[in-house]
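Section 3.1: Structural characterization of target chains.
Under the original work plan, the team committed to producing a structural model for every single-chain target entering the pipeline before any wet-lab resources were allocated. The record below documents one such target. The sequence was received from the expression subgroup and is listed exactly as submitted; it comprises 614 residues.
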Amino acid sequence: MDGKPVVSPLWYLFVAFLIFWAMQIYLAPKVNEITYSEFKTALTGGKIEEVSISGNTIKGLMKPETSNAEKITFVTVRVDDKDLVSELSARGVKYKGEVETTWLRDLLMFWVFPLILMLGAWSFIAKRMGGGVGGVMSIGKSRAKLYVEMETKVTFNDVAGIDEAKEELLEIIEFLRTPEKFQRLGGRIPKGVLLVGAPGTGKTLLAKAVAGEAKVSFLTISGSDFVEMFVGVGAARVRDLFAQAQEKAPCIIFIDELDAVGRARGMGVFGGDQERDQTLNQLLAEMDGFDTRKGVIIMAATNRPEVLDPALLRPGRFDRQVVVDRPDLKGREEILKVHIKNVKIGSDVDLKVIAARTPGFVGADLANVVNEAALLSARRDKEYVSMAEFEEAIDRVIGGLEKKKRVMNKKEKEITAYHESGHALVAEFLPNADKVHKISIIPRGVAALGYTLQLPTEDRYLMTKSELLDRLAVLLGGRVAEELTFQEVSTGAQNDLQRATDIARSMVKEFGMSEKLGLVTFEKERRPLFLDVSGTPSKEYSEETARDIDREIKRIIDETYEKVKGILSGHKDTLEKLAKRLLEKEAIDKEELREIVYGKKEEKETKSEAEGVR
């Protein structure tokens, strides 16, 4: 955690072995190796002074050739020579027997090498289990990453589109900078700040910006890093995390994906759930025990606040909950300005248009759009990124990869053209529908044979009944156009019908928009607050009411179907003209669409005529 490299025990053994080996080579006395025949010749010549005979070798001293020279130490391999002892006696050579010592060889062969192999195997297993060499022994250590002082390199200048959340966190920064200002008046800073928002909205980035602005240490860890296969590891890591934080104070502890460890207790019956509950209990105890006056602030992020344990959210723990919402139109424009800082863009790029074309996009989505546009420009060998690349990048993010090489037969292409033209015309002729920005019959993604892109004129946070009905009508426009043109229908409207049915069902069961059933809701399902995943609905009404609900849903769809049929029947020539142009060009933008629909007249003049048709 302090940045110092951890040295493996194997390195110490290896270095010690090298030193021992070097001593054996360089410090041992120099010995000449000679052959046995050379030894016999020297013995016959009277040059041998003394020898030491062992089981495999003969070592000894040779007489110097001159009186001033030193005696020569030699060694030779012993062979089976029965007359050797008698010759040594006859020549007057001192000789003795010697028991050969093999302790060094035995030490290396039977102790050192097996020990190294065992340590190597243990190191490999420990690394696979996490933590490298010594990982098993340090498994209870926190895996939090430490960013010291300005190492995060993130400030509020890098965070855009979530101004309200930034303002909420300014108080935390002020406390970390000047804690005595609050302590002087007896104020108590919140122990914990919970960042709640959809995935990609910038919760982690915002936490890093707080640490960067306050110029304090930043400990970050994911909720899933607490729980391991061993019981008690999660609680041990929580204790170690808070101990590190106290040492690094003032600092910020940031727990990402808090729902991985902070789920409501008592919901599971398996061992893993019990281990997670134990980890959560330790987290609650640590949050109660540490002193905020030392300058330790806990921040956490989640996109599933509804599953968190209530004990985490009570005052004294995560006192403050900051919602990091999806950016609005202005917020998306500010986020785009941040992401294009290092991108060369053309003079035709209008960030307001790009922001308007990306409703519902979060910061991560917008960053992806800018990156895709830059990659497209590089692929085309351009010097800068133009508006065309941004438009194509948005289409790619929304609809998927364009598949121009997918072969469609003439009949399928014609059906797709009339289908998308039906969507576009209904959207143009209804007052509460979002206006069409682009129509295409080029396949995209997995199954989309074409698409009609509508853009809202402004961000919306609620919808009226008439707006929902017009949206439902636009969805039915493709199916009705097929039926009017070909007197038969295809499977291309499957997704449209599913979405239309969902709108009608929500109007009846959730929004109280059925005159027959009145101001009653029939939905009691828990939906994740920031995730687009439906839960399992619980049915708490009679079978008779269920039949009434089905009848109302069908009535809404049938009435809307007749309305759409009337619109397209009255503009059949325009439908055919638009479809033929689409077959010819494969993609039509909003200007060309309005030229086909309204001719050279102003849109406002023809609007009243269209309303008269309805």
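The first strand starts at residue 32 and ends at 33.
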